[in-house]
Amino acid sequence: MELTERKKKVLRSVVDLYIRTAEPVGSKAITELPDMKYSSATIRNEMADLTAMGYLEQPHTSAGRIPSAAGYRLYVDELMLDYRLSMDETKSITNAIEEKMQRVDKMVEKVAKLVSQATNLPAISAASRSGSACVQRFELIQAGQGSFILVLMLSGDRVVNKLIKLPLDLSESDLKLLSAVLNATMTEIPLEGFTTQLMDRVMRSAGTAASLVPVILDFTQETLKNHAATNMAVVGQSRLLGLPEYRDVDKAQRVMASIDEEALSNLPAVMQDANGTKVIVGPENVADELKDTSVVMTKFDIGDGLQGMIGVVGPTRMDYAKVTARLSYFAESLSKMFAKPETPQLPQAEKDDAEQ
Amino acid sequence: MELTERKKKVLRSVVDLYIRTAEPVGSKAITELPDMKYSSATIRNEMADLTAMGYLEQPHTSAGRIPSAAGYRLYVDELMLDYRLSMDETKSITNAIEEKMQRVDKMVEKVAKLVSQATNLPAISAASRSGSACVQRFELIQAGQGSFILVLMLSGDRVVNKLIKLPLDLSESDLKLLSAVLNATMTEIPLEGFTTQLMDRVMRSAGTAASLVPVILDFTQETLKNHAATNMAVVGQSRLLGLPEYRDVDKAQRVMASIDEEALSNLPAVMQDANGTKVIVGPENVADELKDTSVVMTKFDIGDGLQGMIGVVGPTRMDYAKVTARLSYFAESLSKMFAKPETPQLPQAEKDDAEQ
DNA sequence: GCTTAGCACTCAAGGATATGGAGTGCTAAA
DNA sequence: TTTAGCACTCCATATCCTTGAGTGCTAAGC
User: Model's pTM, two decimal places?
Assistant: First the structure.
C-alpha cells in the first residue's frame, strides 16, 4: 500500500493529538481539526490503512488509535513540523546560560537543571574528554616545613594542584632539581606511556627528593585518569510523575532507577557516533525498563577537547518537536558560549579548587 | 490518666508493628506478639486509653490504630529500643567509606549515595564551612607567553589555582614583586576585610604587573566566597516510590520536589544548633508538603573547619531505630576517617582539579 | 478490681454486575 | 471516491453486595 500525502497528514495529526492528550485518538477528533475536510468515515478508512501498514495501533477494538514505534519514527524523521521557539523561550534559555559556569562538573549539573526546567522532563547532562590528556609542565613550590605544592599544567590549559605533606627537609634547589627532572622526563606523555622504567628513571635522578616521587607520580596518574573521565548529572526525575503514563508507580520507579544507573553508563557510548540531535523512540532502547520511554540527545562543544551532551528522558509520546527545538537551541547556545568568551581580551582562566 | 508501663509497652508494639507493615494495627495483632500475655480485650482497653491520651489515632471506627505524631515523638524519645548494627552492616558501611573521598563536593555526593543505599531511603548530605576562610599565601608562576598560574593557599590547608591569560610580557622578577606585595598585604584577611583602600594599595605597589591585580583579586574574592559556601547533594528520591505511603503519585511528586528544592535551603539551618542525631517527626516539619514525612539527621566533623551533615527522608512510620543507628554509625565512621587518615606517616594531601 | 469472653455493630476493601458512550468496521447511497 | 448510517464491541464508571477485620461494651470470671 502506498503512503499518500493524505495518509501522512492523518498520521501526523494522530501523533500530534496523542502527544497532547495521552489518550487514543478517534476519527472524530481528527475531523474536528482545522483544514481536515473529510468526514470521520474517510478518516476511519485511512486510519485502518495506517494500522495495517504498522504505523498505528489499537489498544482494543473500540478504542481510538495510538502511534506505534514505527509511527513515531516516521513522525520524527519526516512528518513533524519544526517548532519555532518563541522570543521568550530563546531569551530565557540564553539568560539562564549567561551565568558563568565555572567548573565543568558544576556546569554539567547546572545545564541538566536548566534543560530539565525548560522541558519539564528529567534531563541528563554529561561532559567528557576526547583524546587523552598529558602533563605539559610540573612545578613544585615549598609551602612550609615538610609541605609542598605540586602544580600540574595539563594539555588544554587545565591546571591541577595538590598539597603534599611529607616529613622531609628539602631546599629550594632540591625542588628545582626534581621539577627539572620531571619536566624533562614525564611531560607530553599520556597515561598509557607511564611505564615502570620511566618512573624508575625519574626516581634515580631525583636525588634527595626521591621520596616525593611516588606521591607525585601517583597523583599525576590519577589526575590524568580523572581528566579522561566523564562527568555526568541526572536531574529532575520527579517530573516524570506528573505525566499520565507514569501514574503507574512501579513503572515510574523502574524507569527512574534505570535512568539513574544504567542509562548513565550506556548513553555516552550511544552518543559517540551520532552527531546532531538523536531521538531514540521507546522500543529502540536497549534497556528493557525504557522500552516505552524515549530519549532525545544532543551534543555540544566545550572546547579544550571537551565534549558535552545534553538529553532528556520522557514518555514515548513526548513532544518531539518542542523538545528537540529546545535542546538544539541549548546546545547551540552552549557551544557558542564556550567558543567565544564574552570578554575576549580578558582572562580566560582555569579555576581550581582543592579540598580535604 | 497515667501512662503506665503496660501502656508504654503497648504503644511501642503498635509503633513497631506499624513501622513494619504500614497497616493500622489491631488489638489481636498485639496479643500475638511474644511476651504479651494479655487478651485482645485488655489490649483494646489500653489502646482506647492511648487514643484518648492522643498517642494513637484511628483512621475510621472499625480500623486498627496508627501512631499519632505525639506517639511517634514519645517513641523516638523514650520508647524505641536501640537497634544493634550487625557485624555485616558495620562492615559494609566501613568498607564503603574506606574508598578515599577526594574532593569535598564529590564526597558529599558519594556519602549521600551510600546512606541512601544503606537505608533504602532518599538521603541528603551536605558539607559547609564554619568560620571564614582567608588566604595564607599567594604564589605566581610563569606558564608561558602571557599566561600565568596563580596559586592560593587558604587556611585549613586548602590550595586553589587559576590559569590567567593576559597579553602581558612580565619577567620573573615582576611576578616575584607582585607576589611579595600580595603576601604582605592580602594574607590572613577574610572576605569581609577586602576594602577598596586595601585593593588600591596593592594596585599602586604592583608596578609593571598592575594589570594582573584586578584579575587576581577578583578570583581571590570569589574563591573565598565559594569556600564559605555549602555543598549539598540529594540522592535516591526514587526509593520513596517503593513505599506504600507514596503510591499516591501526587504526594510522591510533591514530596520529591520539596526535598529537592526547599528542604535544601532549610535543613542546614535546622542542623545548626542541634548536635547528635535529630529526628523531625512528620507534622513537626515546617514545609507543608512534608507534613507526613519524617527527617532524620546527624552531623559529623570533617576537620579543617568543615562541618558535614547526613540525613534521610522517609515516611513518618520509618524505622527510626534502624535509621538512626545506621546514620550515627556513618557519622562516627566519617568523623573518625577524617580525624586520623589511614597512613599517618604518609602524604595527607590536597587534591585539586581545574576546569574550563 | 482487674481481666477476659462474647456479642452486636461499623466500615473499608474488593468482587460482581449493570450502564453509557466512544469508537469501530462495513454497507450502501451520493 | 467520499460519506451517512447502523450494528457491534468493549472499556470506564458507577452501583450494589458481601466479607472480614476490628471495635466498644457488657457481664462473667479470677
Answer: 0.77
